[in-house]
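Same chain as my last thread, 104 residues:
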Amino acid sequence: MYKEIETRTEFNEIVKENKLTIVDFFATWCGPCRMLAPELHDLALEHEELNIVKVDVDKLPELAGIYYISAVPTLIFFKEGKILNQVSGYMDKEALEEIASNLK
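reply #2:
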């Protein structure tokens, strides 16, 4: 799965799944966020076992606040509603794959 989250309810349902979920907190005006988007898209195409979702911090600021997002892009890795890891900044697909494989 690769999609942008529209509501807090949708977010909560997805991160509680028994599946590794990568949440990309991003902003449309952010250069590194725009560079990261195709890397995440490619990762989603190659790894159907992952949920990869995007949260626009300008559209859902309350969700960004709950997770204390102070920089974009920030990626949070969830499984069954629990945070397993958090990283900020641009990463290529290979680095993302390595993190995800260590968390499965």
